[in-house]
Amino acid sequence: MNFWLRIKRRAFRLVANLVVHLIARVQITDIERIQRTEGPIIVVCNHLGRLDFIFTLALVNRDDVIIVVAEKYRKSALMRWVVRQLDLLFLERFEADLGTLREVLRRLQRGGFLVIAPEGTRSPTEALLEGKPGAAFLAAKTGARVIPIGVIGTEDRVIKESLRKLHRPSIRITVGEEFFIPPLPRENRDEFLTGYTDEIMTRIAALLPKKYRGVYTNHPKLGELLV
User: Which of these, 29, 182, 52, 40, lies nearest to 117 by C-alpha position?
Assistant: First the structure.
């Protein structure tokens, strides 16, 4: 990573921290599980609102963070500028975006820190949607440690209403324990990825209050994690 990109990322992270603490009261549990890590990491989290990107970035004290941005934000001149300045990656979510996938793999194999929402989009119900296999695939291919995060309070409606009333909403971020996903097998890959996607999503669900657990509320694996 070149010098100027490192400086721009640190400056943006500083701004993100200022914005977060200006507009919200943030409580973070077990943040040291993220801040004391090195090597390839995949942080997986639920996705409630448009500002999740800012709140998550404010947590990460690393210059090599990898963030993918949904293709719909290409329409925004501001987001295109941010992506260029910070060397982020646009992701075509509804097609096989092999170019972005290969670049994410390359950055992870070099020891990068990926932040990804396995649901692939903001949840309209504000509870967990079914996870997509991308995060499990990347972890299995790279050997990266996976760290789940549960976030509540960043719902778009909550943020908008709070800002309208000049009130700072309470946001709670809980960092779970890291775990590994075994290497991708040659056979039964779909079954393997489905199983470990459920592993990822139920570990996120275990960090959330019941009303946020969505389609994973009654998953057997979640029951095991909550015992």
Answer: 52
